[in-house]
Amino acid sequence: MASLRDQLGGLVYSTEKGNTCPSCREPLESCRCDADSEQARIAALDGVVRIRRETSGRKGKGVTTISGIPLTTAELKDLAKALKKRCGTGGAVKDGIIEIQGDHRDSLKQELTARGYQVKLAGG
Ligand SMILES: [Zn+2]
């Protein structure tokens, strides 16, 4: 049995650690909110991956966005890494959407189709 001092030490430790999730009030390490919202986001997708070029408010060639990929953020980041390498450009993952700098619609469509996704080019 742990001594009172050890028990208090544990309490102090967990209180100090105190990073709790504002939504569920669980400690962040056991919080499932992000995972749950990812599952909800993925469940809401229709199975079609959409590639779109966006230039509004951006310099140069704008970016190519890829939405609707049924992957978690961690998996999207891995995929984005591979796509950036293939296109030789930069990019990012935001809110479940991969952004690739420049206009790479054709090679992205090719790459994603090869990976087994149903891909549609959307927008301008
Ligand atoms: Zn939470």
Automatic annotation (TrEMBL):
GO molecular function, one term: translation initiation factor activity
InterPro entries tied to this protein: DENR/SUI1_TIF, SUI1, SUI1_arc_bac, SUI1_dom_sf
Keyword annotations of the record: Initiation factor, Protein biosynthesis, Translation regulation
Domain SUI1: start-end pairs: 53-116
The keyword Protein biosynthesis is assigned to this record: yes
PROSITE patterns reported for this sequence: SUI1
Listed PANTHER family: DENSITY-REGULATED PROTEIN, DENSITY-REGULATED PROTEIN HOMOLOG
UniProt similarity note: Belongs to the SUI1 family.
Protein name: Translation initiation factor Sui1
Biological source species: Vreelandella janggokensis
